[in-house]
Amino acid sequence: MKQTNNIVFRYFLVVLLSISTVTGCGTFTSKLSQRPPSLLNRETDADTKAILDRLYTHYQQWQGTPYRLGGESRSGIDCSALVRTVYQSAFGVDLPRLTGVQAQLGNEIGRHELKAGDLVFFKTGKRTQHVGIYLEDRKFLHASTSVGVTISRMDNTYWRNKYWKSVRI
């Protein structure tokens, strides 16, 4: 009887260890839960301030970096790479590399619904698009072909006429 109990105990122990190992390795953490709460919930002034603080900090780090099509570094960066880099660094969110693909993400929102961190898109030519990150008061952060990484106003004549759509990630 003692030998049978010993075998059952060993069997139970092996099964228990196997289950705990398998479930320990199978932990799933969604990308959504890794995002800062302030990016998911922008309802309070504190949430908006936290987002703006992160965006302005990244602007200071990238300000004046020249525009370079296909660039992804401080020696030159294009608009979609800047958006991708800022979202990754500031919010831990991975975005695709290309503007056209970024425009297909999230939920489209109206210009009057913009909040800090939303993406704003412009059609700058027949087949060219531009993207930036909305800040506040009709201002957005982007990599301009003429002045590099900068902040522009959406209501200036050029950008107002090129506005295409806005997306909330």
From TrEMBL:
Residue stretches spanning the membrane: none
Keyword Signal: yes
GO biological process, one term: proteolysis
Keyword Hydrolase: yes
InterPro entries xref list: Murein_DD/LD_carboxypeptidase, NLP_P60_dom, Papain-like_cys_pep_sf
Top-level taxon: Bacteria
SUPFAM superfamilies reported for this sequence: Cysteine proteinases
Pfam families given in the database record: NLPC_P60
Homology family: Belongs to the peptidase C40 family.
Record's protein name: NLP/P60
Protein species of origin: Nitrosomonas mobilis
